[in-house]
Design goal:
This protein is mainly alpha-helical. Among the domains are: 85 residues; 264 residues, Neurolysin, domain 3. It has 23 helices and five strands. The strands form two sheets. The protein has a three-stranded mixed beta sheet. Strands 1-2 form a two-stranded antiparallel sheet. α12 crosses α13, α13 packs across α15 and α17 packs antiparallel against α18. It is globular, with a radius of gyration of 22 Å.
Length: 499
């Protein structure tokens, strides 16, 4: 076995991921309910075979060609990820079923755990939100216990089948990440932004909630993040109009409808969260949106558009792992945050949303305060994740209220912990992406002006970066521009400029 077998594994993985993504797209779009995940995995025995995956690692590490070694390693990491999901599929499905069936009644309405996040985002009445959260606590506890079994299973498989010490070691190797160093940066970020957060963001939260932040569940922020003090009509037509304006300004209008397919149509069963689903990079990228109202819709649409544009402009001649199998998601998230930022830019709001300069600036400041909240929250999440995944006790979630409370200044319950825990150390990708976006945004403004998002030359600059697909990570891409990957401290400096 040699290069040919490596190709066979890669081709089977490519087909597997395409089928899973197609199913995901149909379900998220509300076009299909029943999942056939087990049957999909069963039809791809090469990419999910343990001996083949272990062989692939040996093949990669022993290969003299650094390019083949890197492509084989990316394929190996992706295969391990799918092996984990396949092995724990029944536990995942049991949790998903419980989330659908476990419901809290508020007045005459039943709210399931599965739909609770979307419900909280759209529910204006504080007392109704509070009643649901109080009734959900025992359900959160049971769901987190089920989730703990999944995390325990993930760690056991990585130890017993792949020889890793645990979850953290595997994903630090995959992402080429020093989690300890990043955790130190998170602590530093929380410390250096504490005064600014306490003086600027906490008063805003308390003014909106009408009570002390420390006494209120952080889950009420789901509604505050969705709503704006200044009414901004969006909806399906408004969102699509703004998307088209952004694409035309940068010279990207030709990809909409050809490579990027946007679905903003309201539909029963459609997920409340925006999502980018690539089926074939760079030829077929789908973005699903469900506008709920407010600037958050626009931010979410532009964020997913950032992912879609990077994928749609990838060089089709790149090898599959360089188009579809990144080691880390920090690079694509950096582009997502870059485009998301345009949605709240005062210049863009004034030009395309008919706001006065004063209104646009006020809305920008409010959204910037929300951004600080989210970034500090993710710093707290990373500190909790590192602590939780380093320990042997899967039922100890006490670090969640400690770290998230420190980061947000709000009440966080330990029973919510594992429902908030994201796979693949994604919090690390987000944090590094936010830091990288500050540099990339500054570069664009310095080179093409404050209205860079209306410059076709800026579009050409971005298109050149995107043509490289996922071949290089965020640090390498910034290096190619003469920029050094910043520490998270750059976010504190950006906070002070923006608010």
């Amino acid at each position: 076995m040699g290069d040919g077998y490596f190709r066979a594994i890669q081709y089977d993985l490519e087909d597997l991921l395409r089928e899973l993504s197609t199913q995901c797209l149909k379900i998220k779009s509300g076009l299909e309910e029943e999942q056939q995940t087990g049957a999909i995995y069963a039809s791809h025995p090469v990419a999910t075979d343990l001996e083949s995956i272990l062989w692939l690692r040996s093949f990669a590490l022993g290969h003299a060609d650094p390019d083949i070694r890197e492509r084989a390693l990316r394929t190996y990491f992706a295969c391990v990820g799918q092996f984990l999901r396949m092995d724990l599929l029944l536990r995942d499905q049991a949790l998903a079923q419980f989330m659908l069936e476990a419901k809290v009644q508020v007045e005459s309405q039943n709210v399931s755990l599965a739909e609770m996040e979307g419900w909280l985002m759209s529910q204006e009445d504080f007392s109704r939100r509070e009643a649901v959260l109080l009734g959900a606590r025992p359900l959160f506890q049971k769901a987190s216990l089920m989730k703990a079994k999944i995390w325990e299973g993930l760690s056991s498989i990585l130890q017993e089948d792949f020889g890793y010490k645990g979850y953290l070691e595997f994903f630090q190797e995959k992402k080429e990440l020093d989690l300890g160093a990043l955790a130190s940066e998170c602590l530093e970020l929380l410390d250096t932004t504490k005064q600014h957060y306490t003086q600027r963001v906490i008063p805003w939260i308390e003014s909106r909630l009408g009570m002390q932040a420390a006494s209120v569940s952080h889950l009420h922020m789901l509604r505050l993040m969705q709503s704006d003090s200044l009414a901004l009509p969006t909806g399906e037509r408004g969102t699509l109009k703004a998307v088209k304006a952004l694409l035309e300004g940068l010279g990207f209008e030709s990809v909409l409808g050809s490579r990027i397919h946007l679905d903003a149509e309201p539909r029963e069963g459609k997920t409340a969260f925006s999502r980018c689903v690539p089926l074939s990079v760079p030829h077929e990228i789908h973005v699903t949106l469900k506008p709920l109202g407010g600037l958050s819709d626009l931010e979410a649409a532009f964020h997913e558009l950032g992912h879609a544009l990077q994928l749609a402009y990838a060089d089709p001649n790149l090898e599959y792992p360089y188009r579809h199998l990144p080691r880390s998601y920090a690079l694509t998230e950096c582009f997502g945050f870059l485009m998301e930022g345009v949605a709240r830019d005062p210049e863009f709001l004034a030009l395309h949303k008919g706001l006065s300069e004063k209104e646009a600036e006020a809305l920008y400041l409010e959204r910037s305060a929300k951004r600080i909240y989210v970034i500090r929250r993710y710093a707290g999440k990373l500190l909790f994740e590192r602590e939780f995944l380093s320990q042997a006790c899967w039922s100890d979630w006490s670090g969640y209220p400690k770290w998230l409370g420190l980061a947000t200044g709000m009440r966080c319950e330990s029973c919510e912990a594992l429902l908030d825990l994201e796979e693949e150390l994604y919090s690390a990708d987000y944090l590094r992406a936010w830091a990288g976006e500050v540099l990339l945004r500054s570069q664009l403004r310095e080179t093409f002006g404050a209205r860079w998002f209306m410059s076709r030359k800026a579009g050409e600059f971005l298109r050149d970066l995107w043509s490289q697909g996922e071949r290089f990570g965020l640090e390498e891409l910034l290096g190619s521009l003469g920029l050094k990957m910043p520490r998270l401290g750059i976010l504190g400096e950006d906070f002070r400029k923006c608010t």
